[in-house]
Amino acid sequence: xxxxxxxxxxxxxxxxxxxxxxxxxxxxxxxxxxxxxxxxxxxxxxxxxxxxxxxxxxxxxxxxxxxxxxxxxxxxxxxxxxxxxxxxxxxxxxxxxxxxxxxxxxxxxxxxxxxxxxxxxxxxxxxxxxxxxxxx
Amino acid sequence: xxxxxxxxxxxxxxxxxxxxxxxxxxxxxxxxxxxxxxxxxxxxxxxxxxxxxxxxxxxxxxxxxxxxxxxxxxxxxxxxxxxxxxxxxxxxxxxxxxxxxxxxxxxxxxxxxxxxxxxxxxxxxxxxxxxxxxxxxxxxxxxxxxxxxxxxxxxxxxxxxxxxxxxxxxxxxxxxxxxxxxxxxxxxxxxxxxxxxxxxxxxxxxxxxxxxxxxxxxxxxx
Lengths: 136, 222
Hints:
The complex is a heterodimer. Chain A has four helices and four strands. Chain A has helices at about 20-30, 50-55, 80-95, 115-125; strands at about 10-15, 35-40, 60-65, 105. Chain A has a four-stranded parallel β-sheet, sandwiched between helices. In chain A, helix 2 packs across helix 3 (about 80-95). The mean pLDDT of chain A is about 90. Chain B is α/β, with parallel strands linked by helices. Chain B is about 30% helix and about 20% strand. Chain B contains eight helices and seven strands, in the order βαβααβαβαβββααα. In chain B, strand 4 (about 90), helix 5 and strand 5 form a beta-alpha-beta unit. The longest helix of chain B has 17 residues, at about 40-55. Chain B is elongated. Chains A and B meet through helix 2 and helix 3 of A and helix 3 of B.
């Protein structure tokens, strides 16, 4: 599958989406090296704006927060909270002249399990107007 | 508690433009509770400033710190060994904190990153309401613990004004009418007759009559 090999990705995701996430993500991390970083979370409601800022600061060009579908969160509203925090972080990066699109929330529509490596390859293959971050 | 909001980044950038090495200091008390100046907010601002500097190829070194209280000398003292090593201190304390740090370090440059706003209550997560003006002449006992000076847009001691609709203020329909709250609370606690009392104007001299106020307690002094 074609990927945007010139971009670095950080993917925060709810680990309930993929019970085999540990094996699946490690394989892809090994293959792509510093181009991808996975951050499995017990629930994406744990995501803070600071996590997203630090991901960008550390060289990610694009950060995804992959959540359960709306109203299917195991903890009821973790995905809704993740969305609000991501939107807050989008406001912060806009203040410094970075594109909002560098942060994106992605609710998974299909029911779990979802293979995080397949999902990540799909995300990396998406067309994007983003160029490498000026912070690199 | 004292509430505050972060200044726009453009204003902060302008204030710190001459400096390359800064201490960025938060406060773990009121402004942490209102999510504007605690440890997380220090991290967020530092991250944004570092990214901004990198984007513009500017040199900027930041050391992040959060004091338990930025308005008390014993906590400010943690900065003593550090301040001289930095060009300036960017404070995420309230106005009292900024000034307290400035007083302890007379030669240091202290730059505020927050706009201090009001004395308030955390109504719910992410919602803070102004409910005390620090007038120095508290009348809550007469008004069922609802302050008409602060929470009535017209500051009426002898309300209601007659303009409220559905229990909300005519000045801001999203704000509960303080007098509707007062009457309801007095009624529910069987004290409605308290409304018959006419209250004289407030003693505003206690708030602003002699300039900045101070409290002296000899029993607390060392």
